[in-house]
């Protein structure tokens, strides 16, 4: 099939040269003024976009817009993905990363972790979040997926592009699909990694999380070294969960950040949330048996250190909690009926902590329920990517989303977790799809992406 003709780009503003954390080179930064409320023009806010220009001067006119996940993550939080996933794409196309309103450099709604977070109870943590939400005092009901999609259109126009390609990761797949339905003529292709189906309710993730945990257990049992090192892994995990269900555990230990000896509280919610996050990426998931076994034997330091990664300097730690709540409390929580929550958490290690936390915080964020119309069919070619061991958006979610797509392809990485665009041959496949979206992607190479080794001791993964 012949390549699609190259469109002619409109004249774009120059922007400014910028150096941002996560990128060694100078990039181009743009601030685009958009309405705060698209139904009531007047007040405005600024949305930030970062452009990594194509390497070739004779670049194609259809850039790749990158939409981060969360909700709550900004494009400027994931700048390393430019090289890790899009280096081949960038040879011929600009890469545009957008900071969704309320994240990153687009007026981040920010609640910083208190310095004594490790010693605080769940009630104290929730009270701290409530105080921060009230202190920020933003009009949270203006921070919806719909508003973010309309912001993307403002950025497209301001930067002078005609048709664009969209890459979305995790929640970014929801945002990308919504944009494609609002502005179908402006979308050339979509690449969706870790696909959120239109009917997916973000807090209802117990079933998928438990499936990923069970897979990790089975893989350890099938690996001779892992099985020998952790022969009672399932019972040790069950024992820890049961103990924490009875109440928080307070330990005296050296803080992994500072080495200062201090009390650290491990609650059921913290334990489940950390396990869930560990399952996102396969290298981390293959450290879980070691973390569980160490904690079971009273050595919690490795587990706490891993838990701290999400509130320190990692990409996850830079997410906007209030933006997450603004979106989820408006678009997902109203659909989380008691019956659905009970069915989803039955038999899952996640239990009901997230739903109970949302029940406490959503009234404070004070947003009206948002009911989107039934999805329309997306006509643009779509490449969907899934990790077989994804604990959040497993392949079944992409299969559900495909019902509303006219021309979709779906690749599943057997040894992949949540977000697989950086793995193995996938960056090459992204370029091939964008160059010829009407041609089937020959994706057999994803089956050759190896599984990481298990961590058996404090020295790290096996060689």
TrEMBL record:
Q: Where is the AB hydrolase-1 domain?
A: 63-420
A single Gene Ontology molecular function, please?
hydrolase activity
Report which superkingdom the organism of origin falls in: Bacteria
Query: Has the keyword Iron been applied to this entry?
Result: no
Does the record carry Secreted as a key word? no
List the InterPro entries hit by this protein, alphabetically: AB_hydrolase_1, AB_hydrolase_fold, Peptidase_S33, Serine_prot/Carboxylest_S33
Gene3D superfamilies (alphabetical): alpha/beta hydrolase
UniProt keyword terms in alphabetical order: Hydrolase
Family label: Belongs to the peptidase S33 family.
Q: Could you tell me which PANTHER family the record lists for this protein?
A: 2-SUCCINYL-6-HYDROXY-2,4-CYCLOHEXADIENE-1-CARBOXYLATE SYNTHASE, AB HYDROLASE-1 DOMAIN-CONTAINING PROTEIN-RELATED
Q: What is this protein called?
A: Alpha/beta fold hydrolase
